[in-house]
Structures are given as structure tokens and as C-alpha cells.
């Protein structure tokens, strides 16, 4: 990252007029009387982004994230304030934005290249790379109105990342397509980040924001609530979500919602909790040694550096603790066929007495794409005297 400014936003607002009746807009034009209310989609936004920064944009639906991104890409203009963008921008805001549905895939590659300012010669140089990345075969010569959502996503992402943008904007656009393509997209995005491309990444998956980004910007009700180190911003945002009363606004953390069930990369086949002698048990003292045995079959051994994760949940679905091999910098075996790996808790789980269960998952190398996720794979019980309150008993001393 350098001190070169690529995006500068100063006191920027976006205001929409809201009319109670359709005829009020016409009356206002002719009679000059104000008949609308002002809705601030964005209000007095100010921030600066430097070259090479990876920014995670956080906020609930309707907070103003998409409006901000559309202004940065030139789709919308601000009502007030200044916006300065220095560099070639490639954006995945809504699948197909900037595409002509009547054009073929090839024609849309040329169209998008032209929009980004490339000459025909430059587009021709990049065309085959885009076609190869999209992997949609002969459909590249068909009108994109005939494409499935997965094919559409492949072409849109292939075009966005293979035109060498200086600024890449991704807004929840990686939730379609099969697992292998999601992994491919995220790997490409990470390579771009590592090579110095400035990236603005919008996702409801907070874990993905933490892994990919170094800085977070939280927008709420059109205003910047917090801007800073990504984990600090994410922690405050999650705290806000936990105490929010509206039930419909929850964290959505599945990039795998539209997984092709016929494309199985790996499968969890057995899970057991073992004590120190190797016996299988599901009742433990809070400080008693526990070893998890996780058995999984691999059908595609070409996946690079997959991640194994385990989450402890209380019976009321309170999230107690989650760990994975990416965060712990551990590589798991990944050969075709059956594999076994273990997770140890040498000092016990340390949860207060009660009933709990494990969620177990296999992810891609970024721990974002779910290859398989099994909720409530096994229930267990922690036995404890009354030693404290809350969720966990943390080792401590009074002096």
C-alpha cells in the first residue's frame, strides 16, 4: 500500500425526493410548491482510500452501501459534496450490470472492454483469458439472455477481474455458481489484492470481511458509523447486530446457498469425541481433555489448501467458540479417498455446565466457500460445579 489516493469522498450526500402521491411530482413542477420529503440515502460521507487498500464495507440492507458504490462507479451522481476516483474501476455490483442481454458473451466482452476505455487490440489480447476463466464453453457465442444465473456469474466475474482494474468493487456477487468456481473467484480476488489492486468488498459474511480486508467501513442509516482496523469495526458491527430488535435483520454467512448438489468436492463421514484413553464419550468435566476425530472423504484432490473448522454452540444456539486450520496455520491432509484429522482441547472446553453441540465444516483455502457444513453434528454435555457465570470459565487467580 502506498500513500497515493485513489478514492476521495468529501461531505458527500445523496438525497431522493419522496412523494406521497404520483401527481405531487407534476404539481411541484408547475406550481413551485414543495410537496416531497427528503430521504438521505447517504448523509455527509467523508473518507479517503489509498492505493492497495482492501476495504470491507459493512452495513445492514438499506444502510446505503450500494448507493455509495454506484456513486463511486459513476452510475449515480451525488446530490452534495465531492467524489474523486483515480484509476480504472471494475465493478461487480449487480450481476449483468453493464451487459446487453441481447448480445452474445463475446459481444459483451467487447462492450465492457470498450466501456473501460480499452482499444479493440487490447480487448483482443484479453479476450481468450476471459473466455478461459469463465468456462462456459460454446455458450460464449450465445445471447446472454439464454444463460443460467451461474453462467452469467462466471462471465461477469471473468470480465471484471481480467481487464486489469486498478480498483475492484465486489458487492455480494460471488453467491452463485458451483463450489469450484467460487473458490476460483476468491483466489483470483486475493491474488489481485496481493498484487496491489485496491478492493472494496461488500459481504454479509463478516468472517470473509475479516479474512480479506485490513480496513472496515461500517455504514448505518446513510452515515459512517465507524472507519478503522477491520476487526475493531467488525466487532462493533456484530455487537450492534446482536442487540438489534428487528428479527428480519440477521447475519447471512453462506456463500454456498446456490451450491450445485451434483458437484461434491468432499464429504464429512464420521465425527467422534474421544477422551484421553481414546474412548468415545459425550460427557466431560469443563477442564477435561477432549480430542475430536474428524473423518472425511475427498473426491477432488486438486483443491489447494482446504480449511477445516469446528464451532462449539450452546443448546440455545449461542456461539461459544469457533476455530479453523487457516487461523491456526495448520494444513490438513487432502488426498483422494479417506482422510482423518484431529482437534485437541488439552485443557478442556471450559464452558459452564450444560448441553452443547458441534458444527463442523470444510472450506476452501480462504475459509469462505463452504465445501460442506454440517450443523449439530454431535451433541455433548459439560459437567461443572458452580464455579462462575456466563458462557465460559476462564482460568484465573486471585491475589
Can you tell me the overall shape? globular
Helix-strand pattern: EHEEHEEHHHEHEHEEHEEEEEEEE
How many strands, which pairing sense, and closed or not: the largest β-sheet? 6 strands, mixed
Low-confidence stretches: 245-262
Please bin the fraction of helical residues: 10-25%
Would you count the extended β strands for me? 17
Beta-strand content estimate: 25-35%
Rounded to an integer, what's the Rg over CA atoms? 25 Å
Distance between the termini: 46 Å
Biggest sheet: strand arrangement: 5-6-7-3-8-9
Individual helix count: 8
Structural class: alpha/beta
Mean pLDDT: 87
Task: Explain what you see.
Helix 5 (149-161) runs parallel beside helix 6. Mean pLDDT is 87; it is low at 245-262. 31% of the residues are buried. The chain has a six-stranded mixed sheet with strand order 5-6-7-3-8-9, sandwiched between helices. It has a five-stranded mixed sheet with strand order 11-17-16-13-14, with no helix packed on it. It has a three-stranded antiparallel sheet with strand order 2-1-4. Strand 6 (167-171), helix 6 and strand 7 (198-202) form a beta-alpha-beta unit. It has 399 residues and is α/β, with parallel strands linked by helices. The protein is 23% helix and 34% strand.
